[in-house]
Design goal:
Elements (H helix, E strand, L loop, with lengths): L24 E3 L16 E6 L8 H15 L3 E6 H4 L18 H11 L3 E7 L7 H8 L9 E7 L6 H13 L3 E9 L16 H28 L1
Parallel strand pairs: 2-3, 2-4, 4-5, 5-6
Antiparallel strand pairs: 1-3
Helix pairs in contact: 1-6
The chain binds flavin mononucleotide (FMN).
The site of flavin mononucleotide (FMN) has 14 residues, from loops.
């Protein structure tokens, strides 16, 4: 079945500052050639843009990875823009582990993340850490993240966002996610953005993406089986 692009729930125009114009949740069409045969659903990979400021480079890096993930062929791929999701600062009264959400934006965010089998967090480094928008989006949920792999595409100055990733690893392990070693780490990212504001990958970025996508596919399948048999 072909999937069409759909707006992400909860994105109803609260944030107008997005650049470049990516959909809040862009869903890539999947291959229909397996119709009529025994079919194991390709794992759903969600690429999450972790920066929200006007003029950010996050979407440029994420757009490149989105295409790389489609070309990989092992996933149904979704691109999620936290600027469009536009969650308010965490405002649920109960701990997310109860799953008793009171707000429509949380229920919608929950449904979005629950359908993912694997994630890539595309993150800048702000003051030696990852950004507040990503932390907020992570904190909203609990079971939706559990027993799923996560890869990191980080960028920044000389440290390539790796300090942000080290902090992210601490956070995601509390949620029982599986953080991957294989990653994309982009130093001096501004020098890799062309005149059309597109990310121009170098050899290291390409190699990192290939290794991370291969590893994500492996873990996504394994952990999905584990979740299904445990259920
Ligand atoms: C508030 C702020 C803090 C920053 N701190 C760091 C930092 O600690 N390390 C670093 O390498 N770059 C840092 N930078 C530079 C960012 O990595 C760079 O601006 C990057 O493009 C930010 O990602 P974005 O464009 O997607 O928002 C910082 C930028 C901002 C706006």
């Amino acid at each position: 079945m072909k999937r069409s692009a759909a707006p992400i729930p909860g994105s109803a125009g609260r944030n107008k500052l997005r650049w470049p114009p990516v959909a809040a949740c862009r869903i890539a069409p999947t291959d229909t050639s397996t119709a009529g045969r025994d079919f194991v659903r390709a794992p759903t990979l969600q690429i999450i843009i972790g920066s929200t400021r006007p003029g950010r480079v996050g979407p440029a890096v994420a757009d490149w990875l989105y295409q790389r993930a489609i070309d990989h062929g092992g996933f149904a791929v979704e691109l999620i823009d936290l600027a469009e999701v536009d969650l308010p600062m965490f405002n649920e009264p109960k701990h997310p582990r109860f799953g008793e959400y009171t707000h429509a934006h949380t229920k919608e965010w929950s449904q979005t993340i629950a359908r993912g089998d694997a994630y890539i967090f595309v993150t800048p480094e702000y003051n030696y850490a990852f950004g507040a928008a990503l932390k907020n989006a992570i904190d909203y949920l609990h079971a939706e993240w559990q027993y799923k792999p996560v890869g990191f595409a980080s960028y920044g100055g000389v440290a390539a966002g790796t300090r942000a990733v080290q902090m992210l690893k601490q956070v995601v392990t509390v949620l029982k996610m599986v953080p991957l070693t294989e990653s994309v780490s982009i130093p001096f990212v501004q020098q890799m953005i062309d005149a059309d504001r597109r990310f121009v990958p170098n050899e290291a970025a390409e190699a990192g993406a290939t290794a991370m996508l291969d590893e994500l596919a492996r873990w996504a399948t394994t952990l999905r089986t584990m979740r299904e048999t445990a259920a």
